[in-house]
Amino acid sequence: MIRSLCSPRAYRSIGTTTIAAVFFLILVGGIVRASGAGMGCPDWPKCFDRWIPPTDESQLPPDYQEIYKDRGYADTTFNAVKTWTEYINRLVGVTIGFLIFLTLLSSLGYLRSDPAVTGLSLASFLLVGFQGWLGSVVVSSNLVPYLVTLHMVLALVLVAVLILAVARSQRQTAPFASAASRPALGALLWIVLALSLVQVVLGTQVREQVDELSASLGTTDRTVWVEHFGTGFYVHRTLSLLVLALNVHLARTILKQGGMS
Fold first, then answer.
1. By the number of CB atoms within 10 A of the CB, which of 11, 46, 170, 258 ranks highest?
2. How many angstroms separate the CA atoms of 125 and 121, rounded?
3. What is the pLDDT of residue 217?
4. How many H-runs (helices) and E-runs (strands) does the chain carry?
């Protein structure tokens, strides 16, 4: 059983599944953020001090708004959809934790032949643990903007580490060439990564502006919001086209040149 788990084929299969799951978690996290469900569960790891979240306000203490007033519930009523959206996000996160642990166990098969694969897998395991802790801090801080941004950036770093680990595990079988032998392609890759990261950070800041404008101007006439957006919004909007074009160009270049690792 252990031997089959530590085989190269098993590692690539588990690692690829884990990568897909992390991308799914990022999608779910985006839904949580866009729907304003980030504080759907005001405590962590429980939700309203329950392992199974409530489905109706009647299941909460009469003074729950007072209990969680420092978490934004002083003037907020219970919303079952937002609560369960956030709780599902947490369940997906826990599932990914188990998947990354399996990825780490499976990587032990590379401990002698390519210890870097095991090292990267261990790094992803430690990173997901840190992400879980950071998620609890994000909740306890009532969604402090810079913590939300850091949480998102680290999720992307986690994906990058996993992809690197799985790609490296295929060095003996896949006909890939190193980016080091293609300086122009390597430079393009770093430019795309840097601009993509800037775009993500700008996006989280724009989202914070949306929350602030929604609170101050109301939601009845959203067309008014645009007049109050700062420079960051316009940079984010314009940069998105450049990032998309560069990513498409990078993908075409890699495919044309036969891949890389």
1. 11
2. 6
3. 72
4. 8, 0
Question: Nearest 5°: CA angle at 158, between 152 and 159?
Answer: 95
Strand partners of residue 47: 50
Q: Whole-angstrom Cα distance, residue 229 to residue 209?
A: 7
- pTM for the whole structure: 0.77
Nearby residues of 22 by Cβ (< 8 Å), 6 or more positions away: 96, 155, 158, 159, 162
The Cα diameter of the chain in Å comes to: 66
d(CA 134, CA 154): 10
Residue of 104 and 230 predicted with greater confidence: 104
Residue type, 72: G
Q: Is the peptide bond before 42 cis (omega within 30 degrees of 0)?
A: no
Q: Is 50 helix (H, G, I), strand (E, B) or coil?
A: strand
Give the pLDDT of residue 176.
Answer: 52
SS3 label, residue 196: helix
* Residue 50 bridge partners (DSSP): 47
Angle, helices 8-35 vs 145-168, to 10°: value is 160
Classify residue 182 as exposed, middle or buried by CB count within 10 Å of its CB (0-12, 13-18, 19+): middle
Whether the CB-CB separation of 71 and 31 falls below 8 Å is answered with: no
Cα-Cα-Cα-Cα dihedral sign, residues 224, 242, 231, 33: positive
Q: What is the pLDDT of residue 260?
A: 47
The dihedral of CA 113, 157, 173, 180: what is its sign? negative
